[in-house]
Amino acid sequence: LELPLKRLIVGGMNRVFEIGRVFRNEGLDTRHNPEFTEVEAYQAFGDYHDMMELTEAIVQGAARDALGTPTIRVGDREVDLSKPFRRATMTELIKENAGVDMHPSMPIDQARAIADGLGVRWLDVWGAGKIMSEVYDASSEHLLVEPTFVMDHPRETSPLARAHRDDPALVERFELVVAGRELANAYSELNDPVDQAQRFRDEARLQAGGDEEAEPVDDDYVQALEYGLPPTGGLGIGIDRLVMLLTGVDTIRDVILFPTLRPEEGAE
Fold it and tell me: From its phi and psi, is residue 50 left (phi > 0), alpha (psi between -120 and 50) or beta?
């Protein structure tokens, strides 16, 4: 949904959203189904701080309307969604949970050594920023039970996000994590066509080096940016994961009517 909706902002619509079924060629596990439901929203002249406020309002409103209370149960804990969500940078969370200091500008050998010490695999084509993101995934995400905005991701892992206003090695991006699961992803949108074209070229290099999560090149989108995208905040929320949170279930299959299933053994 992302690039077409941002084309609408280029075309003059100030606020757009869509709730739709989307497909990603991913494997199956308790959090992933190849076909899922997502809401995406974009606001001209907004940024990722505005998207945090919008995300908080959506999640809190969904809990009140669906359950009649902002309090949910996560395992044996009660989580009050009505309180302001915690805001923490990825660097802070890695330090808090893994006990190491990481930044995308650090020497690649140091980043690889930290990853090796924590048992985190890496690819030769990855820079320190991508390795840092993998260390966060392994050390921190599963520990975040209370709602947490994980802010300020490495530039290397966020090809569509605007560079951070205070640190060009980072971008203005957040993920909302609750109960150890990512519920939302948002950022201040990159609106510089020259920078965007270079980011796509960098992604193509990562793809060639075996990174299956790298973004495909989209020259038409770069051309749209050349017409002019105003400063924009963008947000995506996984509806199935939000329903999982509100209903207290542990697998995404329980909230999708016709989930993707593995073939039966012996079936042709």
Answer: alpha
Reading across the β-sheet that carries 170-178, which strands appear in turn? 15-23, 35-44, 232-238, 181-188, 170-178, 148-154, 86-89
CB neighbours of residue 126 within 10 Å: 23
pLDDT at 178: 96
CA-CA distances (angstroms) from residue 192 to 151, 154, 183? 21, 18, 28
| Token output for 231 | 């400063």
- pTM of this structure: 0.92
- Residues 64-115 have pLDDT tens digits of 999 999 999 988 889 999 999 999 999 999 999 999 999 999 999 999 999 9
**What's the rounded Cα separation, in Å, for the pair 118 and 139?**
8
The residue type at 228 = G
> Residue 55 has which token pair?
């995300």
